[in-house]
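Subject: Re: docking follow-up (zinc ion)

Dear J.,

Thanks for your patience while I sorted out the input files. As discussed at Tuesday's group meeting, I've set up the holo structure prediction with zinc ion included as the bound ligand rather than trying to dock it afterwards. The sequence and the ligand SMILES I used are pasted below, so you can double-check that they match what you have on your end before we go further.
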Amino acid sequence: MAPPASRRLDQLVQALQRLPGVGQRSASRMAYHLLQHDRDGALQLAHALQAAAEGIRHCRLCHTFAEEDVCPTCADPARDPAQLCIVETPADQAAIERTGSYRGRYFVLMGRLSPLDGIGPDDIGVHPLLQRLQATPAVQEVILATSFTAEGEATAHIISRLAQALGLKVTRLARGVPVGSELEYVDLGTIAHALADRR
Amino acid sequence: MAPPASRRLDQLVQALQRLPGVGQRSASRMAYHLLQHDRDGALQLAHALQAAAEGIRHCRLCHTFAEEDVCPTCADPARDPAQLCIVETPADQAAIERTGSYRGRYFVLMGRLSPLDGIGPDDIGVHPLLQRLQATPAVQEVILATSFTAEGEATAHIISRLAQALGLKVTRLARGVPVGSELEYVDLGTIAHALADRR
Ligand SMILES: [Zn+2]
Ligand SMILES: [Zn+2]
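The structure tokens for the complex came back this morning:
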């Protein structure tokens, strides 16, 4: 068998497999495409990866990805500080924002409980959330918008107990959201309806 | 709707969509995974992309990806210069190498004819192949190992005419390779058999 034609090509194929859902064959196809047809794209992606990995941190208040200490949503004085909506991911937050029917604030867990995967309360943002609730007396209502999956429900349950122990009103998105689905993939009307019907 | 939380995040999601087969949703998931769980992977991929895009060129003789002027396979004096096997991609070449049943040399077209996509003889390596054949009198047999698809057959047909005009013997992998399939995905035994039965 011939020696590999290029060590750099091998390393690129290896590195592409760090992407979720990309196996050896997809990685080879991606590397071939970039090198043969889109070297500008390869350099642009290299730059974007480095800029993101080195320049993106977590918002001090809501924990989502941000470039500044505080993200634009948290910095917006027009958002109602009495409501705090708890979501699992930035994508879920974006889905709620797209409904245009929520003007409160957010906390982004960046994950959800998954005991089978070894993901406990300390691995998602439960501790920073508790700090946030204790440090922000303006919060009156915690709206649980975690997924309607077993893991999302368990996450909601833990946060519900913490918030109730602090004397806060706790609501959950109405079950208009189809059970078993991830919020990110739910249509906007359903999310808006579930927000209005929260209990 | 809230302003985007991070311009760098948006740019990363955009850049990831330069990868073939990656849409907006996959790109978001990839960006989230890298930033939340694997920043080392993001930096490693950034480095590999840049190193490959800037350091990989085409072998002067066989046209495949290489870091040197001439790739290791072409530089190997043990390979038989009388046989030149024509393949579409480095992945196809690798598939043939894995059979261990071919000791001749290669030419890698880096594509195949696809009139519907506007890919003609000038877009794949037909012209460099002609130069290679004219400059290398040692070649006696051209083995066509393009895919057994309509596009691969059309590519083989054009090259066959060129090579015959130069007085060279032209063979084609035997039809042991399942019709309609891409060589890269064919099992090794079938490829070895097809090589032995070439006509
Ligand atoms: Zn924030
Ligand atoms: Zn070569």
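A couple of observations from a first look. Chain A touches chain B through 63 residues (CB under 8 Å). The mean pLDDT of chain A is 88.

Let me know if you'd like me to rerun anything.

Best regards,
T.
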